[in-house]
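#struct-pred
JK: can someone run the complex with zinc ion? inputs below
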Amino acid sequence: MSSFFKSFAGNPREAAAMAMVQSSSYRVLSGRNCSNIRRTTPLDSFLAKGRSPVKAFSFLYVSRYSTQPNNEFGHSSKRRSRGPVMAAKKAADGEKQEDGKYKHTVDLPKTGFGMRANSLTREPELQKLWEENQVFKRVSDNNKGGSFILHDGPPYANGDLHMGHALNKILKDIINRYKLLQNYKVQYIPGWDCHGLPIELKVLQSLDQEVRKELTPLKLRAKAAKFAKATVKTQMESFKRFGVWADWNNPYLTLDPEYEAAQIEVFGQMALQGYIYRGRKPVHWSPSSRTALAEAELEYPEGHVSRSIYAIFKLVGGAKTSLLDEFIPNICLAVWTTTPWTIPANAAVAVNAKLQYSVVEVHSSPEDESASTGKKKKMPGKVLKTQQNLCVIVATDLVPALEAKWGVKLIIRKTFLGNFTEEAGQFRGLSVLGDGNSAVVSYLDENMSLVMEESYAHKYPYDWRTKKPTIFRATEQWFASVEGFRKATMDAINDVKWIPHQAVNRISAMTSSRSDWCISRQRTWGVPIPVFYHVETKEPLMNEETVEHGSDAWWYMSVEDLLPEKYRDKAADYEKGTDTMDVWFDSGSSWAGVLGKREGLTFPADVYLEGTDQHRGWFQSSLLTSIATKGKAPYSAVITHGFVLDEKGMKMSKSLGNVVDPRLVIEGGKNSKDAPAYGADVMRLWVSSVDYAGDVLIGPQILRQMSDIYRKLRGTLRYLLGNLHDWRVDNAVPYQDLPIIDQHALFQLENVVKNIQECYENYQFFKIFQIIQRFTIVDLSNFYFDIAKDRLYTGGTSSFTRRSCQTVLSTHLLSILRVIAPIVPHLAEDVWQNLPFEYKNEDGSAAKFVFELKWPLLNEQWLSFPAEDVLFWERLLELRTEVNKVLELARNGKLIGSSLEAKVYLHTANVSMAPRLLEMCEAQNEADTLQRIFLTSQVEVLSSMETEMVSSVQHTGEYVEGENKVWIGVSRAEGSKCERCWNYSGQVGSFSEHPTLCGRCFNVIVANPPEPVAAAVIN
Ligand SMILES: [Zn+2]
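RT: done, structure tokens with the ligand placed:
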């Protein structure tokens, strides 16, 4: 094995692949449109060929390639040139020495940074490295900027993570990591919502009947806490594997005693300010969960059908006016309801003083009415069929359309527990939504009080957990009076920055219309409402002193022990309340439990970031508690994201089989072909790629695309690393000495960094993704990187031309790394750990890890590239594209193989363009010459088309540039091929010691005699 390959971490296969890269980049990848030849990254292009690139380009092929340079793989016409690489390869494969005479003078890329991410092992390694070195904490502590607090919305500690969690936490991590680079002290405390019914039910379901009978509230609470903590642990491990940085050792759990204390403090403050009251009001009651529910715990599924009835109440007299006397006893008041079961408790019929009512006589024709109309089931009552001279009172406006709404309010009298209570008389014990409803309807009909029954489809509130219908029920509950601080809340909403901006309408509408917040729940697994009730009067006792106890204590301590000193002697008169708080009160107090308690955190938080459903959930509950007690919003900005759907925009569900599991995305599935292990960075790249303001899509196809883009990005970085293997920062060429092409490259880079920074500041990551993709994968590879190879490999190791190029490349590497690091931190760190040179921050500190770097400062000098030159370079790149088209024609016509075998002729009448092109043929810096930019051996700019030569050129093309035509011709290059660089030159043959070299190569060899081979290959 030659020493060349030893430099590749002892892996000959990789070495072969690496070496191939140089040549393959000069091949046209597809015959489709060859004008824009290099679409893919040079280092990566071979990978696009198949799943097993290394195999496809085995050693065997490489050696054959080198001996038959014009006929590799049978499609030599598509191949451009790569002399030095081939020469090196030949020597490596033991070809005759003379063939590879100059191979050791060629500077090929070298790096230990592999093309394959190997994320299954590499990402955990890097994560361990960060953890062991406490990189997040150290960087944050050392940062000199202000603090940045993104306050985590607590996911529910129940079940496995789904893609929605991944989207949410990775978005947060991207923001936090960007702020770290921006020199902020970033503290991110992850949280979990641990109380509530789902966990309580899960625990109950896991117990058998016998154990359940023995269950005390304390035992149930202990089991629920254990379950929640175990879930927190598993979810935390997954979040860590996503590469999310957080203070994992100190998360906040809503079951922590300190947290509960802060929550009760918020409750107490609200109570003292008079915002908490006990009221008997209709609330949403879930018979299936046996508790009151808040608005945020309801959902309104499609297709709910209620039994609606039109019923009548007989007027029996007593009216003060004689207005209706003539109709009595045959006059009724008609009502319409979708809840017939409420009739037994009905105490009155309300009428609207502002409406006009009419007495209408009913002339019924039962045969006609019994007909079922379409989908709606209609059942006229007996009264319609039998009773004559029936008069009902209805609102005049409704006479033409009885099905339209009635201005009726029902005042419900008594409570029942999902079933009718004793007070319901003959209906007691019946389920209100089942038999009870039917019994009432029948009863009304028997008593000639039913006009009609009709099934009625409408929006109806369901319990979001049990997926069963709720009912309205008047009960004694604890409420937070939103009315008391609604105006302050609306004002605060306008001071918050909502991203996307339309979200302000959503939160405003929801807050302005919401009724008082029912905060009590009749469950065990939660924070108890600290209230005592007088045994006889049921009067609640709650004041500053009573609101002071931990959660479990409430359950195990006696009333006497719980009561404050001054009430102790009356302990026998009181009992403890058994209600717990709405879990939205738990999480809605997190600003107090976390921002208000942890050291280094600030109130309000800079950002809250959650899904759009939190406008009626956490964003709102946090806002309400904070406004009520602090008078201001707990956040300065709120970012919302949509839901994750499958590739077709369908909701993910197990039954559809379209669920994308974040764990499988990272670790791969059973079948690695269908479900490869993509690693966290590919998933993170996906997060950056979606416009999260709306719903986002993911599926196997999208993941494959992401993986492809990731590989290309990795290839770009590998190119940079490989070509900087001998770089030292003090090799840098001063800006003013750089060739124009290099100054232009820095100008473009700086604009890209500037744009990306703006996008980060506006949280528009999908734009960053697009910029990175276009710049690093398409633009750089197609142009700068492509033509840079010539001077990098053959310009001479320490030559000005190579050093100036490396100056540009090192700047690109350092900038690209930093701008992508928040999105793909593992990739960035992996590159950083393979950095071949030492780099120090502006303040002189060494950066051991990539996040110890700071965001690149914008360089005004680079940005000041003159506007007219920017324009000229745009036109030059367009010209290059057109030249490539003609070169392709020549290649197809077998005139040339490699573009280095070509000479290009140009003519344009454009007075601003022509002189500059002419100038560039003889540019002072070789890198700026047109032939290097076109990757041809010669370029000649013709001052006139009136020469014989024009007609002798075989392949020509023309395009319109502004108001002028530009003419392009391609003929074979003049002179002979230089053995070392494969450029054609008339000078080849003129140096007696080196008869096969061109002038440039001769100078390189003579001026910089090659170092001993052994030294040249040390990695
Ligand atoms: Zn040469």
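RT: quick notes.
DSSP finds 37 helices and 32 strands in the chain.
The mean pLDDT is 82.
JK: thanks, will look after standup
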